[in-house]
Amino acid sequence: MKVLITGGTGFIGSHLVENMVQKGHQVRCLIRKTSDLKWLKNLPIEVTYGDCIDKSSLAEAVKSVDMVFHLAGLTKALKEEDYYEVNAFGTKNLLQACLTYNPKIQKFIYLSSQAASGPCQNGKKKSEEDPCEPVSPYGKSKRMGEQFLLDHVKDIHITIIRPCAVYGPREKDIYAYFKYISKGIKPLFLGGKQRISLIYVKDIIDGIFLASEANIESGEIFFLSDGEEYELREIGDIISETMGINTLSIPVPKSFLWGIAYLSEFFSKITRRPPLINRGKINELIQIDWLCDITKAKTKLGFNPKIKLSEGVRLTLEWYKKEKWL
Prior knowledge:
Layout: E1 2-6, H1 11-22, E2 26-31, E3 46-49, H2 59-62, E4 67-70, H3 80-101, E5 107-111, H4 137-150, E6 158-163, E7 165-167, H5 175-182, E8 185-189, E9 195-196, E10 198-200, H6 201-213, E11 220-224, E12 230-231, H7 232-243, E13 248-252, H8 254-271, H9 279-285, E14 289-290, H10 295-301, H11 309-322
Parallel strand pairs: 1-2, 1-4, 2-3, 4-5, 5-6, 6-11, 7-10, 8-13, 9-14
Antiparallel strand pairs: 9-12
């Protein structure tokens, strides 16, 4: 099978490229000329240079492929409009290219986000049937991307994957939490009682692959996590225990978080670089519950996550040390 993968140079995308190559598939990657190819070196892949926001670059990318895995997206942006341009309209552009130049494609698999659905309400895990209430520009743009695809479920086979927070080798956001703990500091938002779902990168790749092979209707949406729920305090304890480090718990008040976001956005305007954290991300961080229900993925995809948090943290920490990130 010949597949197109967007976002192949990123954290999850590079793992998917490796997995598809190992399974013997022909892999074509849509890559921007400015992207760093370090995770794809020496892999037998075809590279097509282009960008989802550049419609003219997408025709050759989608021709002759059997399946599209759309993982490209923007998680940090200089301005709010950029999220919509890339995550929403970039998705629409890629879909339109498929409809125009390869309408018989077998499947279009879109890696969305739990952020597109929004946080839990009333302490219950979020399911695919629950209303979407994103609380950040990022989440709203990912939801808009979903809607563009769902408008065409009769024209092309669409599958949408909504992962929770993903961690593992090559990941850079949750890595910041590892870095704080390595210095003996355990930041706690909302008193450490915030509950979240997590998934190790290998399990998310397994889930994406299962979705590509499953005999399911067009337009299906699936949450993916390791099936557990964790308090932030518990996550910090597992990481510090794995590191063998005693940590000091530091409560982080909401006012401090908002202050950091405003400062980051201010300096971003000066440096012309996306802020490390913005108000949209803070609005996600202060939600009490980010839990998702994976019953549907287990039932319809046969999804069975294998990596528990303690093992995933150990594997991730080993990689960070090997690469001298920690």
